[in-house]
Automatic annotation (TrEMBL):
It is a multi-pass membrane protein. GO terms for cellular component: plasma membrane. The chain crosses the membrane at residues 20-45, 57-75, 95-118, 139-158, 164-188, 229-251. Its main location: membrane. One of its GO terms (molecular function) is G protein-coupled receptor activity. It is found in: Cell membrane. Belongs to the G-protein coupled receptor 1 family. Residues 37-253 form the G-protein coupled receptors family 1 profile domain. This is Histamine H2 receptor-like. Keywords: Cell membrane, G-protein coupled receptor, Membrane, Receptor, Transducer, Transmembrane, Transmembrane helix. It comes from Actinia tenebrosa (Australian red waratah sea anemone). SUPFAM superfamilies: Family A G protein-coupled receptor-like.
Length: 253
């Protein structure tokens, strides 16, 4: 099935009224959940009185939270208005505005998850060099690169249209990123397992050595918990994209 035939077959076809109302309700609900939740995360990090949360890792968390906050402030309200106008049969929002906001913010969110994965990878694989490899300043530059890539890549949408660019988005921002992140997480878990087992087998004679080993094991277990939490977030994120990606591939092939 060609892109032209798909695009042509959709001209003048509107969604059923009940579907537009359902999408409007879901978009409004997401706005009410996304904005307060991510606002609290941003507030907690920025207003931390002891500056204990101002680390490269928490800065990347802040970057992701701010991206998702923009989703709640911009994309979800645009989606709400668009689908409401669709249900009422009036033209209030250009669909291209909804498309481009979706592509830019979704790409930025996925790449931000990738940045968090890189942070965990360096923390586990190169713990002694972590501070030299990842500083707050470098994380700021990384966040800027993420936004430049997200905006630049999404501009291709205006060249190829929604159907074909959706295929590009699904194959790059979603699928390839997921495969890369999955590989990194597997590497992290294998490294953590080996380090914990190695430290557990050590039987140092001195009390001081035992204390050092206990601290190392405790630190590794903490890293494992953080990494597992990020894996759950990543899997939930991918599961949310899976239905759309399946439809995109069906439309293009």
């Amino acid at each position: 099935m060609s892109n032209d035939s798909v695009s042509g077959s959709c001209v003048g076809v509107s969604a059923p009224r009940y579907l537009s109302i359902l999408t409007t309700t879901v978009s409004l609900g997401l706005t009410l959940v996304t904005v307060p939740g991510n606002s609290l995360i941003c507030y907690a990090i920025l207003k931390d009185p002891f500056h204990e949360l101002r680390t490269p890792f928490t800065f990347l968390i802040l970057s992701l939270a701010m991206t998702d906050l923009l989703v709640g402030i911009l994309m979800d309200p645009i989606s709400t208005v668009f689908h409401l106008s669709e249900a009422l049969k009036i033209d209030l929002v250009d669909i291209r505005v909804l498309h481009i906001s979706y592509f830019i913010l979704s790409t930025a969110s996925i790449l931000s998850l990738g940045a968090l994965t890189i942070d965990r990878y360096v923390a586990v694989i190169y713990p002694l060099k972590y501070k030299s490899y990842l500083s707050t300043k470098k994380c700021i530059y990384l966040s800027l690169v993420i936004w430049l890539v997200s905006i630049g890549l999404s501009m291709v949408y205006f060249k190829f249209g929604y159907i074909f660019y959706s295929l590009i988005f699904a194959s790059t921002a979603v699928l390839l990123t997921f495969l890369v992140l999955l590989f990194v997480y597997v590497s992290i878990f294998n490294r953590l397992r080996k380090q914990v087992r190695s430290l557990s087998r050590q039987r140092a004679s001195s009390t001081q050595a035992n204390r050092v080993n206990k601290k190392k094991i405790s630190s590794l277990k903490w890293e494992a918990k953080v990494t597992k939490a990020l894996v759950l977030v990543l899997l939930a994120y991918i599961l949310c994209f899976a239905p759309a990606c399946i439809i995109i591939y069906v439309l293009n092939f």
